[in-house]
Specification:
Homodimer. It is an enzyme of class 2 (transferase). It catalyses: (8S)-8-amino-7-oxononanoate + S-adenosyl-L-methionine = S-adenosyl-4-methylsulfanyl-2-oxobutanoate + (7R,8S)-7,8-diammoniononanoate. InterPro entries: Aminotrans_3, Aminotrans_3_PPA_site, BioA, PyrdxlP-dep_Trfase, PyrdxlP-dep_Trfase_major, PyrdxlP-dep_Trfase_small. It is found in: Cytoplasm. There is one protein chain. This protein is of the alpha/beta class. The chain contains 14 helices and 16 strands. The strands form four sheets. It has a seven-stranded mixed β-sheet with strand order 4-12-11-10-7-5-6, with helices on both faces. The longest helix is centred in the C-terminal third of the chain and has 21 residues. It binds pyridoxal-5'-phosphate. Pyridoxal-5'-phosphate binds next to helix 5. The site of pyridoxal-5'-phosphate (PLP) has 14 residues, from helix 5.
Length: about 450
Amino acid sequence: MIADDQWRRRDLQVLWHPCTQMAEHPDPLPLLTIASGHGAYLVDHSGKRYLDAVSSWWVNLFGHAEPRIAEAVARQAKKLSQVILAGASHEPAVELAEQLLQLAPRDPDREPLAKVFYADNGSAGIEVALKMAFHWFRNRGDQLRTRFVSLHNGYHGETLGALAVGDVPLYRRVYAPLLAEPLFVRSPDAFGTDPKIASTMALDDLRRTLEQCGETVCAVILEPLVQCAGGMRMHSPDYLKGARALCDQYGVFLIADEIAVGFGRTGTLFACEQAAIQPDFLCLSKGLTGGTLPLAAVITTQSVYDGFLDRSRERAFLHSHSYTGNALACAAALQTLRILKDDAIIETNRERTQWLANAANTLDGHGIVCERRQTGMIVAFELSPDGTPNSEYADPARAGLRAYRYALEHGVLLRPLGNVLYWMPPYCVDQGDIEKLATVTQGAIAELAQHGEWPQ
Ligand SMILES: *Cc1c(COP(=O)(O)O)cnc(C)c1O
């Protein structure tokens, strides 16, 4: 107990936490002090265990302290941790690139994805894709293409370029004066409506936008199948098919941001597979290292790569990060790919997906759950005061915070996105864990239904 409090005090003396109004720490927003993690559980300094229902910000795939990844990283650390990747190479970077290209979504009628560029976090990966798309057109002498098309309610990270193409008001609004304006188009989000209709309407909007402004656009950027930070809003693969076709028709790139949905979250290794599409840029991070080390990969075609080949340095893609292609992170990623294969994760997750569905379907909504939705290993419960879908509803009373506190008290790290409760657990959860998750979520919903200060 004392150790727990001491750590909390020391932390609040010196740390500034991400995505946090620090005035709320430690009350009303609790601050966990985590001593260790094992499997799907985190353990704090008082010995209390928490089921990590959010995979520690969607990064963890196989549980905490996965021994095979720990070993792979330790082995690599004794050989080479980091080397400058400009002008030098190393085994894990090459092997990982080879394997990612083997696994990347493929459309037999297109030129395959053939080149991997590394960055060191998701937002940086998005910056890379945006800059490459823009620069490719420049290198061809096309000066007009200076804009991006992005989706309402999308999210692509927090650096200024990535934030610019995102549309989560809580993160974007205050920085708006600093941000390049993309062309926002309707989201295919199927919340409260028929997914086919939502997707058709969104495609009409994309078509209109490209018709009007197509020759000023370098790329369309989207999160395939699930807009995660935007409240785990889900859409039909039909939209991705249609968007791919429109991008081709208007000669613009398609950037698939699979930073959150990649590596099995949606039921396939990559979400694009479900629409049988291949993007021009595939952005990966989060689960890439099984949730152990920061790394991102941007994967593109030989033609994009060739567009930068020249004697002029300015035509080259001079983007870099000090830790680009860090060897420890690449080793962790290689081991992650090995585990995905050895443990047949995509196949064994099918049963887990069914357990999650069963647990979600048996929950009593207490009249405030207006929608429960699932795509693979992601389940979301959208709450509203009267249980009717209302996409404008914003949760000013912080019902989500109440649910968060309730779940922590009951040993589950459930971190709602506003009024959306969701499950996105590591792939090692068993039936017992899912029952616990369901029981605690049920309790949180009941608590909100009875005591939540819902605005009228
Ligand atoms: C998390 C996320 C990012 C940003 O990744 P960071 O590593 O947090 O910078 C980008 N896109 C999507 C879809 C994400 O979920």
